[in-house]
Design brief:
With 159 residues, the chain is α+β, with helices and mostly antiparallel strands. Helices cover 61% and strands 15% of the residues. Strand 1 and strand 2 form a beta hairpin.
């Protein structure tokens, strides 16, 4: 049941990401931007062929190989972890990372870049544009960091 539920949640998250990108391509690709909250939150189409916030532009092959490696590590973890050692927080963090990584991997394989569309402006400065998969990866990584840094071994088993 654990594996089935993890799989279903991952599929739903990946679909949310892909549907948001499909919408962005169909509604925003031709130069339009939608103001959600003026001077704060916009939906703006961007093609990102690099990593987070456009760093490492042109590293498509590296990012594909790295993502496949991470996805395989997560799958191996889920296969090898025993019921006694399962942690809700760790499982949640890995499902989020897995789903976000696969969502962006689909873009890189399909079109050669990642579609970004969520755009914030803070104090007159543009924050880098990102997507739903990025939210999953960042949230999952933050949960993973908290889990590994701040929880004792007894806490880790009971979450």
């Amino acid at each position: 049941m654990f594996y089935f539920l993890s799989f279903v949640i991952s599929v739903v998250l990946i679909l949310c990401d892909q549907l948001s990108k499909f919408w962005a391509v169909s509604e925003l690709k031709h130069g339009s931007s939608i103001t959600v909250i003026d001077n704060f939150f916009y939906l703006t189409y961007l093609e990102n062929d690099g990593a987070a916030w456009g760093t490492f532009k042109g590293g498509r092959i590296f990012f594909i190989v790295f993502t496949v490696f991470i996805v395989c590590l997560i799958i191996i973890y889920f296969i090898k972890i025993s019921k006694r050692k399962r942690s809700f927080m760790l499982s949640t963090s890995l499902i989020l990372i897995f789903s976000g990584a696969v969502g962006n991997l689909i873009d890189r394989l399909k079109v050669g870049y990642v579609v970004d569309m969520i755009h914030f402006v803070f104090f007159g400065r543009n924050f880098p544009v990102f997507n739903v998969a990025d939210i999953f990866v960042v949230t999952g990584t933050a949960l993973f960091a908290f889990y590994t840094a701040f929880l004792s071994d007894s806490d880790k088993k009971t979450l």
